[in-house]
Automatic annotation (TrEMBL):
Species the sequence originates in: Pelatocladus maniniholoensis HA4357-MV3
GO BP terms, alphabetized: peptidoglycan metabolic process; proteolysis
Family: Belongs to the peptidase S13 family.
Secretion signal span: 1-25
Enzyme class: hydrolase
EC number: 3.4.16.4
UniProt-recorded Gene Ontology molecular function terms: serine-type D-Ala-D-Ala carboxypeptidase activity
Pfam families (UniProt xref): Peptidase_S13
Keywords: Carboxypeptidase, Hydrolase, Protease, Signal
Entry protein name: D-alanyl-D-alanine carboxypeptidase/D-alanyl-D-alanine-endopeptidase
Length: 487
């Protein structure tokens, strides 16, 4: 961890509000109220305007661009060249650049080296898919090499430089598992969890830890209470980032299911060391000292694991809108450019991203990025830039791989529960995006009666619930799905 990051973590105290009400933000299933109809291109403007001009959207900013795929012929445009907060549609730019630069077979590698001092050095390279399973594989490899005792194990975290948490992320985001820290070592997506189980009426909820080692890191103040059956569940967890106090408040109904709490780790390096010590012990390898340091020798590699290929990592990134994966893929781009002494890995990677997209034909003035996931509200992207990126990647040899990473309407990912029983089901492949006040959807449509389309829809500065905005957005997409060529 960088010194700057350590200071930030030492100064902060934050709370996590985990509530059953989060379920209200999930995508709504759009059920058509009228039988499917056909729409001619000349009717498209009137049809879409009827949605965007509704009184409840009078103060809302809409950015929309619809084009024929391949020809760049515009069918509909509304403020398409203007900047919007894109939310997770940012991942379209990140994953397109990563696929173009790194190739679909790229894999992250985590290595263990034996130094000349006989210490073992673990070199992390920001693999977002690393789990306890891979730690077991590393331990078994060491055992097979005849290593039964490790005098000193050092983790080298220099591969990714900079803050573990982007400075532009809001505190409410880094409180949650979707804002987990990103660095050279990412294990179990840099989160830990436990369950709260209801007890008899009036008793505190019982804590069941997934990891006993992690339980020992915290001093728990449990102020929760078990309430009567069928009462609403509301749990609030607060903790010190740098300290060891974990406070649990709220209520859990007596007949409720176990309540899962997932939190980001405090220090990824030492979390990795704790988990690896357990993996080594399971293989009867004794471990002495552990520390965070520098491998100055990079001598013999004695063990290594690799991530799945990039083609699979893209699916997790886009279909499940995984912020941690997106940030790791962004930083991986830095291998294409030397990182300057006073430059962070993320900043160097953003330069590579921009150069890559420009080479693909995306106008660099159409976006301004500060992260790779879209969690930052400082990101700015125009619908035009998103459509340009989607058009460009479709012309590349990686088109099918990129398409496979997107959610399919009514079938998979974040679109699984949207567009069911509508003409758009199964013919839309797109990326969603959601922040408070910012909703987006961009992707492809394969229209049986018209031909393929590419589109981007972004809504900003809305006070409406996300479900209401999504429903209106989905109405537009369903209308597009009914497009046909007319005489």
């Amino acid at each position: 961890m960088s010194k700057k990051s350590s200071c930030v973590f030492l100064l902060l105290f934050f709370g996590i509000h985990i509530s059953i009400n989060q379920q209200l933000a999930k995508a709504q299933i759009l059920t058509p109220t009228n039988p499917p109809q056909t729409i001619c291109p000349a009717q498209l403007k009137t049809t879409i305007d009827a949605v965007t001009n509704r009184p409840l959207f009078s103060r809302v900013r809409w950015g929309i661009l619809v084009q024929n795929l391949g020809s760049n012929q515009t069918l509909y445009s509304q403020d398409a060249e203007k900047y919007f907060t894109p939310a997770s549609n940012t991942k379209i730019l990140t994953t397109a650049a990563a696929l173009q630069q790194l190739g679909e077979n790229y894999r992250f590698r985590t290595s263990i080296y034996r130094g000349s001092n006989n210490f073992l050095y673990v070199v992390g390279r920001g693999d977002p898919s690393l789990t306890d399973t891979q730690l077991t594989i590393l331990a078994k490899q060491l055992k097979q090499k005849g290593i039964n005792q490790i005098q000193h194990l050092v983790v080298d975290d220099r591969y990714i430089r900079g803050d573990l948490v982007p400075s532009s992320w809001q505190w409410e985001d880094i409180y949650s598992d979707y804002g987990a820290p990103v660095g050279s070592f990412i294990l179990n997506q840099n989160t830990f969890n436990f369950k709260l189980l209801p007890q008899t009426l009036g008793k505190t909820a019982l804590i069941s830890w997934t990891d006993a080692n992690e339980a020992r890191q915290w001093r728990v103040i449990n102020q929760s209470v078990t309430t009567a059956q069928n009462q609403p569940t509301s749990i609030n967890v607060t903790r010190e980032l740098s300290g060891n106090v974990l406070r649990i408040q709220g209520q859990l109904a007596a007949n409720s299911q176990p309540y899962l709490v997932t939190l980001p780790v405090v220090d990824p390096n030492y979390y990795f060391l704790r988990r690896f010590r357990s993996a080594l012990a399971a293989e009867k390898i004794t471990l002495g000292k552990t520390s965070v340091g520098i491998n100055t020798n990079n001598q013999q590699e004695v063990a290594a694991v690799q991530s799945p290929p990039l083609s699979q990592l893209l699916i997790e990134t886009n279909q499940n809108s995984n912020n941690l994966y997106a940030e790791a893929l962004l930083r991986a781009l830095a291998i294409k450019k030397p990182v300057l002494p006073n430059q962070t890995t993320a900043d160097a990677a953003l330069e590579v991203l921009k150069t890559t997209l420009t080479q693909m034909g995306v106008n660099s003035t159409g976006y301004a990025l500060v992260d790779g996931s879209g969690l930052s509200r400082k990101n700015l992207i125009s619908p035009e830039a998103l459509v340009q990126t989607l058009q460009a990647i479709e012309k590349s040899p990686q088109a099918s791989v990129f398409r496979a990473s997107l959610s399919v309407a009514g079938v998979s990912g974040t679109l699984k529960n949207r567009f069911q029983n509508t003409p758009a089901a199964e013919i839309v492949q797109a990326k969603t995006g959601t922040l408070t006040g910012a909703i987006s959807l961009s992707g492809y449509m394969n229209l049986p009666k018209y031909g393929p389309l590419v589109f981007s829809i972004i809504v900003n500065q809305t006070e409406q619930p996300a479900s209401i905005v999504r429903k209106a957005m989905d109405e537009i997409v369903v209308s597009l799905a009914q497009l046909q060529r007319c005489q």
